[in-house]
Amino acid sequence: MHLSDFQNHCDMLWDIYSEGDMMRVVNFKNLNKATICSSKLSLRLTAKKGNFVQSFNNIHVGQNLIGIVKTVVDYGVFVEFPGGLLSLAVTKDITADPDINLHKYFKEGMTVSTHVCGINQKKRQFRVSLKLRKTDIDSDFQLTYFRNYFKDKNIIIDHLKSRKDCPWLFEDLHTGDLCHVTVTEVVKEGVHCTLESGTKGFIATHHRKGLTVKKDMTVAAVILDMDLLQGIVQLAASPVVVKQVMKMKKKPEEIPKNKKLKSLVLLVRKEFVIVLLKMKGKAKLAYLSPKM
User: Do 126 and 167 reside in the same domain of the chain?
Assistant: First the structure.
């Protein structure tokens, strides 16, 4: 869990590193006679900025701290911090929905941003909140954290390219690219298809709104993301989306900085959100960094 801030990358990175490799780490805690280190960028940046709290005496109400999900229970989430400090975020300090299934959204080892909302000096305990409106973090920190997702991903891709069972990685596929796919199967959840090269693809039902398809039919689509674990390309084939992206490809136009634009959410992941930025009848896919 300490190899990356992004849980879906941890297992894959575990297979990449070997004896003798150099890694940047920070001392997370001492356990018996062993030292537990972490390579999570969020913790390394926190240590660099001097906000690496390892003692209860340095905890105070109002602090924003980076922690790691230790355990998920029905009534809340236990979060571990450097030095082995442990805190509980009860359900009401996570969401307004008392019936939410916390196990669906939080996993052991997940990096979270927290806000200290209460301290009990006698019991030497403290409570934290995971509500986004309370856990604001520095925008530069967030951007660096987000960029590291792609850095991790590129390391994994380079490793997978050395294996004979991942030929699709050599196709140079990118989010926002246009392609043509052939339908192989239509199911309730969406459409299974193949790209011209034979690479497997999938179009979720909500990503083909306005398009009727059947087996062996060829349709235009836009690449949303590449699932490294399954080797499947996720696509959108809605005629409106494809048409707007195609217009932008034919007549490229710079997206102005600091300008408010309408956008359509296409894909939501724990690590990122992909949106369709709309501008004068044309559109371009972009990544949106979610809060930690």
Answer: no
- Written as one string, the DSSP assignment of 174-237 is -TT-EEEEEEEEEETTEEEEEETTS-EEEEEGGGSTT----TT-EEEEEEEEEETTTTEEEEE-
Task: Collect all residues with Cβ–Cβ distance below 8 Å to 265 and sequence separation of at least 6.
Answer: 273, 274, 275
Q: What is the pLDDT of residues 149-159, one digit of tens each?
A: 888 888 888 88
Total tally of structural domains belonging to the chain? 2
273's tokens: 């959100």
Structural domain harbouring 61: 7-145
> For residue 276, what is the domain's CATH number?
2.40.50.140
Within this chain, do residues 135 and 229 fall inside the same structural domain, yes or no? Answer: no
81: part of which helix (H) or strand (E)?
A: strand 76-81
Q: Is the pLDDT of residue 24 over 80?
A: yes
Q: How confident is the model at residue 170 (pLDDT cuts 50, 70, 90)?
A: low
Q: Are 114 and 129 in contact (CB under 8 A)?
A: yes
Q: Which residue(s) pair with 64 in the sheet?
A: 115
